[in-house]
Write a structure and sequence with these properties.
This protein has 150 residues and is an all-alpha fold. It has helices at 3-18, 23-47, 56-61, 65-74, 76-80, 82-107, 114-119, 125-141.
Length: 150
């Protein structure tokens, strides 16, 4: 591709973002983010031996955004129905996880000490999972952009 063509594609992408036509791209990013986040959650919770049965919830909920995000890339209907449902479930589960992590820190000997905040359950990790759900919710309300043609 020529430099002028690259500039044209970049200009088109910027216009799509500015005008709210970013649904397909953000749906794809949601699916990718969910895959990475689900893997991280599984490894972290497995390292803690799934000591609390609630640790299985994000392992089951977050991956639902992977097929939903992929479907939303190809289907406007999926972007309006399935993606917002799975994304809302992830946001709610992330908020629940934040409560549970903070409660876990508070229950450690000494309570809210710097050591417990660093060595206990990660304080903000569930909120990062909620961001994946938030991206899916934003994607669901944006207008669809057209595919770039090469």
């Amino acid at each position: 591709m020529t430099v002028a063509r690259h500039r044209g594609l970049a200009r088109r992408a910027l216009t799509d973002v500015r005008t709210g036509r970013f649904e397909r791209s953000l749906s794809a990013v949601t699916a990718a983010g969910a895959a990475i986040t689900a893997a991280e959650i599984y490894l972290s919770h497995d390292g803690a031996s799934f000591g609390n049965k609630m640790m299985w919830w994000p392992v089951m909920v977050v991956p639902t955004a992977i097929p939903a995000g992929i479907a939303a890339v190809f289907s406007a209907r999926a972007a309006r129905t399935v993606l917002p449902l799975t994304s809302a479930a992830i946001v709610v589960n992330g908020l629940q996880g934040t409560y549970l992590h903070w409660r876990g820190i508070a229950q450690r000997p000494g309570g809210w000490t710097r050591y417990n905040m660093e060595a206990g359950p990660p304080m903000f990790a569930p909120l990062l999972a909620s961001l994946v759900g938030g991206m899916g919710l934003v994607a669901a309300v944006l207008r669809r952009e057209k595919y770039f043609r090469s």
